[in-house]
Write a structure and sequence with these properties.
This protein is an all-alpha fold and 101 residues long. Helix 2 packs antiparallel against helix 3. It is elongated and about 60 Å long. This is StAR lipid transfer-like protein.
């Protein structure tokens, strides 16, 4: 009966992918910090390209850190995130939204 309720995936091994996202985030952040501290050496016309690259690394590091946090928290689908939001609203005593009924 459990196999039917869970979709038949009782023997499936789930890999904790949040570690991969966390490692990617730390790597991007470290690369961004080292590039920022190194400064710019070279042709002054290419300086905006390096600035854009460093900013992209910082933005990518924050995005991968966010994904790692969500995956480590057990939030894998949008529905999971909506459930968390509704439980927070009910815990604070706020009325449920019209679409939550």
């Amino acid at each position: 009966m459990e196999a039917e309720e869970s979709g038949g995936d009782t023997e499936k091994t789930r890999i904790a992918t949040h570690w991969y996202w966390a490692i990617a985030s730390v790597t991007q952040f470290g690369w961004a910090v080292s590039s920022y501290r190194k400064g710019y050496n070279g042709d002054h016309r290419l300086m905006p390209v390096k600035a854009f690259g460093v900013a992209s690394l910082f933005l990518g590091a924050s995005a991968t850190a966010s994904i790692a946090f969500l995956k480590a928290s057990g939030i894998h689908k949008v529905e999971d995130l909506m459930d968390v939001g509704s439980s927070i609203r009910s815990g604070l005593g706020i009325r449920p939204r019209a679409g939550d009924k």
